[in-house]
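HUMAN:
Could you generate one sequence with tokenized structure?
ASSISTANT:
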Amino acid sequence: MWRLIVLAVLLVIVYFLVRSAVRGFFQKRQEVARAQSTGKPSELVQDPICGMFVPKEGAYFIRNADRTHFFCGESCRDIYEKKLSSA
């Protein structure tokens, strides 16, 4: 009986993990589609950490003095912040 309960709990956990991953994926796609539906093409900017090109509207960014740096994700932005703080 306890095996059935453990299995049920694990299935519930897996369900919520998969559901949140799918929601995040579709939410990002909707944001990109909304940006593309404005009629004008999105300006691409290059991430200074990994070199990836990302649309300026959906990019993570840091304003540093008189310059704005754009990043593909939080991890690249965090790496850049660490480099700034250690310099």
The first strand starts at residue 44 and ends at 46.
